[in-house]
Amino acid sequence: MTTSSTFDTGAQERLESGITDLAEYRDTERNGWTREVFSSPYRDSRQWTVARMREAGLEVYTDHAGNIIGRLAGANPNAPSLVTGSHTDTVDGGGRFDGIVGVVGAIEAARQLRETGKQLSRDLLVVDFLGEESNVFGLSCLGSRAAARELTTADLDRQDYRGVSLGQAYTDFGLDPSALTQVQWAREPLHAFVELHIEQGPTLEQGQLPLGIVTAITGIERFIATFSGSADHAGTTAMTDRQDAMIAAAEAVLAVRREGCGAPNHGVATTTRVESESRSPNVVPSLVRMTSEVRSVDTSWLGGVKGRLTSEILARAAEYGVDVGFDWSTDNEVVHASTGVQDVVASAADTLGIPWMPIPSGATHDAVHMATLGPMGMIFLPSKAGKSHCPEEWSDISDIATGVAVLVHTLKALDTADLAPATATP
Ligand code: GLV
Ligand code: MN
Ligand code: MN
Q1: How do beta strands 335-336 and 323-332 pair?
Q2: Whole-prediction pTM
Q3: Which string of DSSP letters, residue by residue, matches 361-379?
Q4: Pocket residue to mutate for ligand 1, from 365, 366, 378, 387, most atoms within 8 A of Cβ
Q5: pLDDT for 158-214, tens place per residue?
């Protein structure tokens, strides 16, 4: 949606050029605006981010986790920092706005704060977090996870489809895997963290509202199921005599869908990969792997997903004589935004006359991990037709400028706000 904006046209031009410039860094062999973590377009794009931060008057460095930090010095550098930012990596075949808006927007907000000449009482850190999107290692939010000291050595042993470990990928990118969690700026509790982001869903556009204030971020449970049946001749083995791993996996795909459809509140369930070991079309499949995930902000429903899906998939597979092994992992638990930060964003929006609504996030964000370090909030702006993680992803520049104006007011108000410490995950 487009609001008639009264905001600085210079700001709009800078935001627009930021989005357009970053879109140039992409893997031209893939669809859309692909800039995956550790790839060469991603590496190159980070020089653009550093330059844009410097040009905005920020002091720039890269921390041990690979996050790019732009610091706007406050009056008391020893006071807990105020932090804002997002990510500039994209999913394979992704768009130009997811994460990018929160980095380009945060740099613009810091620039506007500096240009008004009013120094904040504490440091403002603008962060471009390393690799937020879930990657070939199946792990999201690398930079924020490491800063929050939640990245484990087991995570570094995860392997991609070529057998390369995450630790090796860090080394190849020029980062020391043994030092990733030694992030100085995140050692002490933060004063607050706030992230500007596109909604990635249709709610704001449908409600004709330019702004959402995030209440909670979805929890994510993922699993890889391995179906083991029996390899047999596809021409001579009767249908009733087969132990077909593919059929058991097909039943499981539908079971995952039924689980999402049956959520009492909002819940979603997706299967993203089904892979068979069998390469010959004339062999009954004996080994199939499937990757699925389930998301919701409803903790009690999400908490039961593992038990319900495991028993349903096992029961269906048993009908075909197929065994199933499960590897479950929690990408993140449900995280609630700080009510204090939500209130500050709401009064910033009200002061600017910007209508808003409270909204849960169905996507995960770096904010999940920052919430362990301090009070966390997120500001959403509309996504055209709710499209995201695809080339059609779009947000109007006037809406982005509106979001940045709210971010500027929010940062000023957060600087002096007395906030309750980080909210514990329920
Ligand atoms: C990231 O965008 C996610 O929600 O997986
Ligand atoms: Mn994102
Ligand atoms: Mn994303």
Answers
A1: unpaired
A2: 0.92
A3: ESS--THHHHTTTS-EEEE
A4: 365
A5: 998 889 999 999 999 999 999 999 999 999 999 999 999 999 999 999 999 999 999
